From TrEMBL:
The chain crosses the membrane at residues 39-65. Gene3D superfamilies: Acyl-CoA dehydrogenase/oxidase, N-terminal domain, Butyryl-CoA Dehydrogenase, subunit A, domain 2, Butyryl-CoA Dehydrogenase, subunit A, domain 3. Pathway: Lipid metabolism; fatty acid beta-oxidation. It catalyses: a long-chain 2,3-saturated fatty acyl-CoA + oxidized [electron-transfer flavoprotein] + H(+) = a long-chain (2E)-enoyl-CoA + reduced [electron-transfer flavoprotein]; a medium-chain 2,3-saturated fatty acyl-CoA + oxidized [electron-transfer flavoprotein] + H(+) = a medium-chain (2E)-enoyl-CoA + reduced [electron-transfer flavoprotein]. Belongs to the acyl-CoA dehydrogenase family. This is Acyl-coenzyme A dehydrogenase. Residues 361-501 form the Acyl-CoA dehydrogenase/oxidase C-terminal domain. Its EC number is 1.3.8.7, 1.3.8.8. SUPFAM superfamilies: Acyl-CoA dehydrogenase C-terminal domain-like, Acyl-CoA dehydrogenase NM domain-like. GO terms for biological process: fatty acid beta-oxidation using acyl-CoA dehydrogenase. One of its GO terms (cellular component) is cytoplasm.
């Protein structure tokens, strides 16, 4: 019995030391003490084993001992097996900053560090712009008119965008811009997401493009000339990066510039001769100034000894001789302005290079540094705004659309997708707002930008699919009344651009995060490159301590022992502790995958994607918890908290489960499964009760619906009709209408109304005539049914309305 007690004491003591990452000395003390006691008063065998383990820890864990024999051998081995990091990858890794994403890699996330990103909200100017100017812009949009009739925004909307300086949200006021915060930019784009062409048109110039590049790297002359003109719309920018052979692998671009001299107006000018072919360039057809990425060569060595000067960026006026611009691509579903740019022997002077000669060869670094911020905002905000509108439209439609004498919102088959899309929209709102807030606090989130871009646009895909299912025939029939169908068909654009989701999920999130966010990997690689064995020793054994610590934390917390203290209360506390538990498991699995697969992990994209999925879902859950902790709660929101967290944590566990199923080293996979999930998966699909509660709330005039639809155009004050405002108005009187529906339908079922009163209007009229309802109620219901019918109605057209070449029309019944 004493032997068993001593063994348990040694195990518990080691687990406690490992959880705290206390180092070799405390572990040595635990083993030495329990070993000596066992040797003296209990089991000599156990005593010898424990003392032998203590000797191993001393030899491997004490710096003075390991430095003589172990560290040199490990360092030599590490140099051979560690992956080679190319200059391109290193540039990407060093771009941006590490914040909460780094905490999730530690396995013991410091929640207070996340809460320390305090939210100062919006300025009065920002709030007024969103409330007024954005409502004006949204009110000018009709999806059918923009997509099918003019393939562009209306002229008056273009005038409004330029006059109100939408294109200058990121440009400081001293240059004539709006100087908005990241949060304000995000909320502007969310509101403008009522129309995808409008959102893209405003979003792109404020994301990756000449404006941000000039701000960060431009010369004073370039800033003073271009920034005011970009802010007020005198210049419309585009940025040419991708081409026929350079898409996701942007560093492979074959476009070239050659340093040369050319005579202009009798003077010899030093410049660059460009040859390029770009495609998929947003705003290119109407751009007045083109940002261009190319590979610069200096064969005559006019600038120095180097011939290959690397990727360089330039800003070229539209009317530059030799540049072909103005043709259009036809993006699926949406006619946002997008097209090719070509150039043959285009000569530009050196002062067109962004940042001047000092920034030659720095183009890739410039791009990835800008992308880390822009990718956090534009497409994630568009996806979040789309979710807001889709939730509003779908909840309203499901409540007014009646089948079998009840609103379809009462049918569980509709409630399930309605709840799912609502939860995904809720998660998206929290993630994009809280990440934008970290940007406002000085961070440049690289890995979170990949998480938000890929995850939120995938959410958008699910949300729009669910919205289409709920709307049925209303949404599959295109026309001016269809507010959903064109946006649904355009969704693949968001999936594909700014880093295709396949690439982002499989390569970037974990591939970049494993090195950039890990507490020790970057230090180990730097020590290798510097041939610094002492720095390697500190990093490597710190890394080893982290592995043991995460194993202990994951196992004990998986058993429900030693839950992490978190600064949350109520249900949020439990979910934060589960995030911490899975963070420890994720950290352990990340290290195990890197150690067992080494450089080949780059090629095992499905494994990398699953690790990225764990990180993504933990990040999103953290953002939900922060938003819940800091925000004002409304009735019904707790159900959304439960649904969202259970969904995200369940997805994280599922990704870990699939990782264990597919790790090549089956012994390692089995050990990891038992350490990380000793009690199996904790989270299942959210309960049906939560789905019913959420669906009821968002399909009624509720505080939760109002909160979810904040920062949408929800007033009936625009040039175009606003279906969201119409739904909201109908939901405001829904209870009265439901009572009258029940009264009239009950009377019809009892035979108190004529059997041929089949339409709702007929039954209302007959019920009023029979005195079953009042004339006032009848008038109310007639007016309401007219509004309902208008919202349910779809468009029809002339037989040949969609035929471009009328000569090809087949007249099947010409007579």
């Amino acid at each position: 019995m004493l032997t068993l007690i001593l063994l348990l004491a040694a195990i518990v003591g080691l687990l406690a030391v490992m959880r705290r990452e206390a180092g070799a000395l405390p572990a040595l003390a635990v083993l030495a003490v329990t070993g000596l006691i066992s040797l003296l008063v209990a089991s000599a065998v156990l005593g010898v084993i424990l003392l032998a383990a203590a000797a191993v820890i001393a030899a491997a864990g004490l710096p003075a001992l390991r430095g003589k024999w172990l560290t040199p051998r490990l360092f030599a081995m590490f140099k051979k097996v560690s992956p080679k990091v190319s200059d391109t990858e290193r540039t990407a890794l060093e771009a941006g900053s590490v914040a909460w994403d780094g905490e999730l890699f530690t396995g013991k996330p410091n929640w207070q560090a996340l809460l320390d990103y305090t939210d100062n909200g919006l300025t009065e100017e920002e709030r007024a712009f969103i409330d007024h100017q954005c409502s004006v812009a949204a009110g000018m949009c009709n999806a059918w008119d923009i997509a099918k009739e003019r393939a562009d925004l209306p002229q008056e909307l273009w005038d409004h965008l330029k006059q109100e300086r939408y294109f200058g949200m990121i440009i400081p006021k001293e240059y004539g811009g709006l100087g908005f915060s990241a949060k304000a930019q995000s909320l502007v784009l969310q509101k403008l997401s009522i129309n995808e062409t409008l959102m893209v048109t405003v979003g792109v110039p404020n994301s990756l493009g000449p404006g941000e590049l000039l701000l960060k790297y431009g010369t004073d002359e370039q800033k003073n000339h271009y920034l005011p003109r970009l802010a007020d719309g005198r210049e419309i920018p585009c940025f040419g990066l991708t081409g026929p052979r350079a898409g996701s692998d942007a560093t492979s671009l074959p476009d070239t510039g050659v340093v040369c001299k050319q005579e202009i107006d009798g003077k010899e000018v030093l410049g660059v001769r460009l040859n390029f072919e770009k495609r998929w360039i947003t705003l290119a057809p109407i751009a007045t100034v083109v940002g261009l990425a190319f590979r610069l060569f200096d064969p005559e060595k006019l600038l120095g000894d180097e011939e290959d000067r690397g990727i360089t960026l330039a800003l070229i006026p539209r009317d530059t001789a030799g540049m072909e611009i103005g043709r259009r691509h036809h993006p699926i579903g949406s006619p946002f302005l997008n097209g090719p740019i070509k150039g043959k022997d285009v000569f530009v002077p050196m002062d067109t290079i962004i940042g001047g000669e000092a920034m030659i060869g720095q183009g890739w670094r410039m791009l990835v540094e800008c992308l880390s911020v822009g990718r956090c905002i534009t497409l994630p905000s568009g996806a979040t705004g789309t979710a807001r509108y889709a939730i509003g439209w779908s909840g309203g439609f499901a409540r007014i659309r009646r089948q079998f004498n009840v609103p379809v919102a009462e049918m569980e088959g509709v409630q399930e997708p309605l709840a799912r899309m609502t939860a995904l929209g809720y998660i998206a709102q929290a993630a994009v707002y809280q990440t934008a807030n970290t940007i406002d606090r000085g961070e440049k989130p690289a890995v979170p930008s990949a998480i938000l871009k890929s995850q939120l646009t995938e959410f958008q895909r699910v949300i729009l699919g669910d919205a289409m299912d709920i709307h049925g025939g209303k949404a599959v029939t295109l026309g001016p009344r269809n507010y959903l169908g064109i946006g649904y068909s355009a969704n693949p654009v968001a999936i594909t651009v700014e880093g295709a989701n396949i690439m982002t999920r499989n390569l970037m999130i974990f591939g970049q995060g494993a090195i950039r966010c890990h507490p020790y990997v970057l230090e180990e690689l730097a020590a290798k490159d510097a041939d610094d064995i002492q720095a390697f020793d500190r990093a490597f054994f710190g890394h080893a301590g982290l592995i043991f610590g995460n194993a202990a934390r994951a196992f004990t917390q998986g058993l429900g022992i030693g839950k992490q203290a978190v600064p949350f209360d109520g249900e949020a506390q439990r979910y934060a502790q589960e995030v911490a538990r899975l963070s420890a498991g994720f950290g352990l699995c990340a290290d195990a995958a890197m150690a067992s697969l080494g450089a080949t992990l780059k090629l095992r994209e499905m494994l990398s994607a699953r690790l990225g999925d764990v990180l993504s879902n933990l990040y999103l859950a953290s953002m939900v918890l922060k938003q819940w902790h800091e925000g004002d709660k409304v009735e019904g929101e707790e159900a959304l908290l439960h649904y969202s967290c259970q969904l995200l944590l369940g997805r994280a566990e599922q990704a870990l489960d699939e990782l264990f199923d597919n790790l090549p080293n089956r012994l390692l996979a089995g050990v990891l499964r038992r350490v990380v999930m000793p009690r199996g998966k904790r989270f299942k699909r959210p309960h049906d009760d939560l789905a019913r509660s959420i669906a009821q709330a968002v399909s009624r005039d509720s505080a939760l619906r109002e909160k979810l639809l904040a920062n949408t155009w929800s007033a009936d004050d625009g040039e175009q009709a606003n279906p969201l405002a119409q739904y909201n108005a109908l939901l405001a009187t829904q209870e009265r209408a439901e009572t009258l529906y029940r009264t009239v339908n009950k009377a019809y079922a009892k035979g108190e109304l004529p059997s041929d009163a089949l339409h709702p209007e007929q039954r209302v009229e007959e019920a009023a005539r029979a005195g079953i309802i009042s004339e006032e109620d009848a008038t109310f219901m007639h007016e309401r049914e007219a509004q309902v019918l208008e919202l349910l109605t779809v468009d029809d057209f002339e037989y040949d309305a969609f035929v471009i070449d009328k000569a090809k029309v087949l007249r099947h019944h010409a007579a």
